[in-house]
Specification:
By secondary structure, this protein is of the alpha+beta class. It is extended, with a radius of gyration of 39 Å. The protein is about 45% helix and about 10% strand.
């Protein structure tokens, strides 16, 4: 095909593209690479399939989609001027802003058309623009599926099958010359509706009620129902062809008449320019960074507290998967956050690989071994790990509490929470926030308007699937959730994007951690003990101190300073973990900046004196104590009746309950028993006793095929080009061609002579080849070397150098002198 010859098909248009343009098409529509097309013709065929075209239309911005919609109602092919006129209109009745709007459309149209061409939705020169047939079918009007433009069928389409007599009546009533040729009649009626002067004169004679009917139909839908005896205004419109029958009870406003009433515009409001992003507040960027860092540190503390909460084995996994509503409520209470926020933290820890199910028979959620590695990282690295996992996760915590397509409740950590659009929406929301000056918070409504312009709703594309039972505007919901979650996570501070988040998006986790590190307070190695049995941590504590203090005391309040309260139960918990009273006294004296209060020392000594005085073991269970008076006291206590105790020996009681229940029962009665092993040793309870087996984080569900990298694109383009060259190669007729489509057949001597001659001249030949499995194929090769019964050649079909045994070549034929361009 010469460079000046217009393409006749989409395949020819793609064949005329350069390699970079083909790579751009495959990058924009990666579904075309699964698998790599054999040649350009197959690529064009695949690009015109319904599923691929729907996916491409869903990724267009508002104005590119409006351009495609205008081409769908334009003549096929349409010149550039016709397309521009459908978008700008003729300006009649548009007021003073028409020139400005037309200028914006004129400036934006080349880029929109370039996008459609790049994605192979439009092809042809500017004088003959063609929308691919599948896109035209999706966007063109029909009674079952109105056009997005609100336009109806053309006069020719609407009058197809109408009797010549009825056409003659319409022409006569409209004041047009009579003709018995249906084609001429349709052309005359079309000419009337497209002639602005004659159409205006016709409408000037219309009743006011008739004009009101047209006003209701002009912007769509263009169909209306009529009774067998329509009202006079409707009858007036029907008699003049301004309403044409679709069925016995349905009429339609023809496209040409609607365009006249719309002043030539295909859309009521063309949107060539994206909506501006409006700022709600401008703050000091350093204050934003500090606020985000503080919130990020709180996020780390919350996730750490969640891991500790489930340290000994968390809640059970529901039979259908996920967390029960009761357990979610209990976790939210323990974290002191609302349930939706608790669900977010749980899902984030799961996405980051810090929580998982243990896979046991009595399946429960618990921290993973990776959580221990995460806890050992510096705070800034822990934050980047969480933020990176959040950005890539397709699980959407905002859906929790809603219902799936079958009306079942969606639970935290349960199935059906993946939404493949979530990562792309999160990145786009943050990118829009980053486009504002530092310290500027965007207005959520203008941000949503911008997102809708960049990716119109799937409902705006006929045939675009939407999840059953789910709001169509899912992207907007995800965007609003993104703003809330980013604030919780410390991506934003006071609504504005923090500098560490900008670094995470642009430069990666390493730079983000470096930006965050100076903003995180240094961990402290001390607390302030007070006489009311509390300890105040004036800031974040070093991990060993925080871990030990969380065992020895209960957290009473959190915030800038954390308050811990010492109770008999918390001291007993430390003793159960293997600490002695002397160890606790030394620990407090070492890490307190204030003297250890006497009441606290007395509390520790008192609990330690009674701790282990009773021993619990397995009988089913038994109680052992050297002090008979204590056992007598327990037997006499009415609260012990449920334990069903009986004396086996002066210092031993047996119980029907298991050891765990017996321990809890005696502790509720005010005693401090200790569990013992079969050898009589005290069992030490570790806080980190339960971990799941090694688990990998959940894999995000991608939205369609992944975008190929440059290496894959280059290789794919080369393979498509090579396959196209081989498929279009013209070969000379062989002496015995045999049946049509068969392999070339030559004698071994002729085969050897032909490939040797081709190697000497550097020309290409056509061969038939049978591989070791017996599969036959045709190939175009350029022989390089012939020796030892093998021919080494560049295979145009495979686009690589290969070696073929001569005895497997069925025959050789020379290519024709003239090859297609």
């Amino acid at each position: 095909m010469g460079t000046t010859t217009p393409p006749r098909t989409l395949a020819e248009a793609l064949r005329a593209r350069g390699d970079e343009s083909l790579a751009g098409l495959l990058r924009a529509r990666p579904d075309l690479l699964s698998p790599v097309p054999n040649d350009i013709t197959q690529l064009a065929t695949r690009a015109g399939t319904r599923a691929s075209v729907v996916r491409a239309l869903e990724h267009l911005d508002r104005f590119a989609l409006q351009t495609a919609e205008a081409l769908a109602v334009a003549p096929d092919p349409a010149p550039y001027g016709t397309l521009l006129a459908l978008l700008t209109g003729d300006g009649q009745g548009d007021g003073d802003g028409h020139d400005e709007a037309s200028a914006a459309i004129t400036a934006a149209l080349p880029a929109a058309l370039g996008t459609l061409r790049e994605q192979a939705l439009v092809w042809g020169e500017d004088t003959r623009l063609r929308l691919v047939r599948t896109a035209r079918e999706l966007l063109a009007p029909s009674p079952q599926r109105p056009s997005p433009t609100g336009l109806g069928p053309t006069v020719a389409e609407a009058t197809a099958g109408m009797s010549p007599g009825r056409l003659q009546d319409i022409l006569t009533t409209a004041g047009l010359p009579a003709t018995h040729d249906p084609v001429s009649a349709v052309a005359a009626l079309t000419g009337l509706f497209t002639d602005r002067t004659r159409m205006a004169e016709l409408l000037d004679t219309a009743p006011v009620e008739a004009l009101s009917v047209l006003d209701r139909l002009v912007w769509g839908p263009p169909y209306g129902e009529v009774t067998p005896n329509p009202a006079p205004p409707v009858q007036w419109l029907r008699d003049r062809g301004l309403l044409l029958p679709v069925s016995t009870r349905t009429v339609v406003l023809p496209r040409e008449a609607a365009l006249h009433l719309r002043a030539g515009r295909a859309h009521r409001v063309p949107e060539p320019v994206p909506p501006a992003l409006v700022a709600t507040a401008e703050r000091d960027p350093q204050a934003v960074d500090r606020a985000a860092a503080g919130q990020g540190f709180m996020a780390l503390s919350t996730v750490e507290e969640l891991l500790k909460l489930w340290n000994d084995g968390g809640p059970a996994v529901l039979r259908a998967g996920g967390l029960s509503v009761r357990e979610l409520k209990r976790t939210a209470g323990a974290l002191d956050v609302p349930e939706p926020v608790a669900a977010f933290w749980i899902e984030l820890a799961y996405a980051a690989g810090l929580l998982a199910s243990d896979g046991e028979t009595d399946e429960r959620y618990a921290p993973t071994p990776a959580s221990d590695e995460w806890l050992d990282l510096p705070a800034q690295d822990r934050w980047t790990h969480l933020a990176t996992a959040w950005l890539a996760a397709t699980r959407t915590a905002g859906l929790i509490g809603g219902q799936d397509a079958k009306g079942r409740a969606l639970s935290a950590l349960g199935p059906d929470l993946d939404r493949s659009a979530a990562p792309e929406v999160r990145h786009r929301v943050l990118a829009l926030c980053a486009s504002l000056p530092p310290g500027t918070a965007p207005d959520p409504q203008t941000l949503l308007a911008r997102l809708r312009w960049e990716r119109p709703l799937r409902a705006s594309v006929p045939g675009g699937p939407a999840a059953p039972g789910e709001a169509l505007d899912l992207r907007s919901r995800i965007a609003l959730w993104t703003l809330d979650e980013a604030e919780l996570l410390g991506i934003t501070g006071r609504g504005a994007l923090a500098s560490q988040a900008r670094a995470l998006l642009d430069e990666g986790p390493g730079e983000a951690a470096a930006r965050l590190a100076p903003l995180i307070p240094e961990p402290l190695d001390h607390v302030l003990l007070q006489a009311d049995l509390t300890a105040v941590a004036p800031g974040p504590l070093e991990r060993p101190l925080a871990d030990m203090l969380s065992v020895l005391a209960d957290i009473e309040s959190k915030g800038g300073a954390t308050v811990y309260r010492f109770t008999p139960g918390s001291v007993r918990r430390a003793l159960d973990a293997g600490q002695a009273a002397t160890d606790l006294h030394a620990f407090l004296a070492t890490h307190s900046r204030t003297p250890v209060p006497q009441p606290l020392s007395y509390l520790i000594d008192d609990v330690a004196r009674r701790h282990g005085h009773l021993r619990i073991g397995a009988a089913s269970a038994y109680v052992r104590c050297d002090d008979e008076a204590v056992l007598n006291e327990i037997l006499a206590d009415k609260r012990a009746a449920a334990l069903r105790l009986r004396r086996l020996a002066p210092t031993v009681l047996a119980a029907q309950a298991d050891p765990g229940s017996l321990l809890e029962g005696l502790r509720e009665m005010g005693y401090a028993p200790a569990a013992e092993s079969a050898e009589g040793d005290v069992l030490i309870t570790r806080a980190d006793a339960r971990r799941t087996p090694p688990r990998t984080p959940p894999v995000p569900v991608p939205e369609g095929p992944p975008v190929p990298d440059t290496t894959l694109l280059t290789a794919a383009v080369r393979a498509i080009r090579a396959g196209d060259t081989a498929a279009r190669a013209v070969h000379r007729e062989v002496s015995d061609p045999g049946e049509a489509g068969s392999l070339p057949r030559t004698t071994p001597a002729e085969t050897l002579a032909t490939v040797q001659a081709a190697a000497m001249t550097g020309s290409a030949v056509w061969i038939g080849y049978v591989n070791a499995d017996g599969a036959a194929s045709q190939r175009v090769i350029a022989p390089v070397k012939v020796e030892g019964g093998f021919v080494t050649a560049y295979d145009h079909t495979a686009d690589e150098v290969r070696t073929y045994p001569l005895h497997r070549i069925t025959g050789v034929a020379e290519l024709a002198d003239e090859q297609p361009a």
